[in-house]
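User: My collaborator sent over this chain with a note saying "see what the structure looks like." That's all I know about it. Can you take a look?
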Amino acid sequence: MGISWGALAGAFLAPFLYGLYWKKVTRAGVWAGFAAGVGITVLNLFFSFIDSPINAGAIAMVAGLIVVPAVSLVTKKLPKDEVNKMFSCYDETVTVHKKKALSEK
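Assistant: Without extra context I'll predict from the sequence alone. Here is the result:
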């Protein structure tokens, strides 16, 4: 379980988070983060350089958080208008009406 969850979390956590909240993430950065997460956990499976598979998963998650922005800063960016179009959903205003949970007496 530690190996499978570590590989999944290490491969997808950083690309997912940076993809949601950072406009400068690139496709190469996402793939590098994915490869780092899977690579660390799979290599640890065969070579056991980290004692626990759970610790390997945690290290893979932290590595992804470092690799994704590092690679994204040095690789080709998407056109600015395309990125702004993708992030335009954050500009939408949502109105929620509150209701009274308890009746007034």
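A starting point for your reply to your collaborator: The two ends are 54 Å apart (CA to CA).
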